[in-house]
Design a protein that fits this description.
- The chain is α/β, with parallel strands linked by helices and 437 residues long.
- The chain has two domains: 7-172 and 198-287 and 365-434, TIM Barrel, CATH 3.20.20.30; 288-362, no CATH class.
- It is built from 16 helices and 14 strands.
- The protein has helices at 28-31, 35-47, 70-74, 84-93, 111-124, 139-143, 153-171, 229-238, 249-265, 287-303, 305-316, 338-348, 353-362, 373-387, 401-417, 430-434; strands at residues 7-12, 52-55, 99-105, 130-134, 179-182, 187-189, 199-200, 205-206, 221-224, 241-244, 274-279, 282-283, 370-371, 391-394.
- Helix 5 (111-124) links the parallel strand 3 (99-105) and strand 4.
- Helix 7 (153-171) packs parallel to helix 8.
- The model has no long low-confidence stretch (mean pLDDT 94).
- The structure holds flavin mononucleotide.
Amino acid sequence: MAANPFHLAWFLQGSSIQAWGSPWTGNISEEWGTASMFLDLVRNMERAGFDYILIEDSIYIGQNWKDSRQMFLENGMSVPRQEPSVVASIMAAATTRLGIVPTLSTFAYAPYLTARIVGTLDQISSGRGGWNMVTGSSDLSAMNFGADRLPDHDKRYDMAEEYIQICKQLWGSWEPGAIVADRKSGILIDHTKVHTIDFEGEYYRCRGPLNSGPLPQGQPVIAQAGGSVKGKTFAARYADTIVAAPRGIPAMKAYRDDIRSQMTAMGRDPNSCKTLFLVTPIVAETMDEANWRAEQRAVWASNNVDRCLAQLGWSTNIDFSGHDLDAPVGELTTNGHQSSLAQFVTKAGKKTLREAIIAHASGGYSTELVGTPDVVAGQMAEAMEEVGGDGFLINLPDVSRRSIATICDGLVPALQQRGLVRTKYAHEQLRDNLLEF
Ligand SMILES: Cc1cc2nc3c(=O)[nH]c(=O)nc-3n(C[C@H](O)[C@H](O)[C@H](O)COP(=O)(O)O)c2cc1C
């Protein structure tokens, strides 16, 4: 392998049905909910040597446009989507090396339940389980769980500190070697090696031990996407892998450098956490076709300003429907994903809301990747050289068997030929594969 290989993961936005209406999506409106599409995706990813699939989640139907669900339902925006831990189990059963990382939001699952779900996933996948730790973004989701609103943004991270301590202690509540399975004495489990945790915090209490037993990885892989000051510090303290979407190479480099220096200050080896940057590559057989598709993306955004703003409103918890499209973006605040909003506002500068949202929706997230497989492979290599590592999180808005093939059978072999990604897995467990290089 070349001097600086990098990692690849896939960002599955809840489900594949959002691709409905795009070409080559088969009968997706009928088949989306069944296992077949997910299984085809993960088998392709595993063949291509991806580190993991991250199953994104939110637990509500958007209503951030004219205070109505109409826009979200009519266009299938982030709806429907299924329970990620269930989808994760069938993905685990269909693969042997790929890491499986469902999103579980801290406000929705009790810490014991998260520890148990992720622990079980790690067991049934023989050490490939992970957890995308998110604190939530919308009061609408809190209302589905009996609350009027989410706690304030920074308080959510304070609560998450206790939450993750409970999970980690529960995963550690079985000492190595606790299952003795001694046929002579007839003892299966050494009871002196399984401990309560007796956690008493400000926000949570938990007795333990975990009743689902020890994990193959000991501790599962923690994925995190903190973008705010609090969020990044949290990620630097706990994450094994970070998924991030800063826009542009300098911002990517600054983000990674910041995480690494925080990790060093905390006494963690900065190489023990891999930051993967969100990208939406447009990969085609010819440059003309790739450029045409990139132009189409911009045309689509200009013709669907309402939809693009509703989508931004969904992730930032803002209803933009009353905002003047032709006035400057100005100051905006949120109790949702702060960094997503801050990035949008900074990038907008003096642009009007219309201009800013078109630019936002036409771009490729962290860095623009457009071209033939070999050209995109070169663009990725250049980006990694400047940023320093550690890889990319691939996000396709139109998940179909054809678009999956453009990545797994087009782009990845081009990356492999340059020695930039693995050609086969070196290990069986997810953390080991993340630490391979
Ligand atoms: C690549 C990526 C994936 C994310 N996935 C989810 C998700 O599945 N569910 C969710 O509620 N938030 C998700 N987020 C939002 C983050 O959890 C986080 O709230 C956001 O990056 C803003 O950071 P902050 O909370 O520190 O302000 C994601 C963010 C990024 C960049």
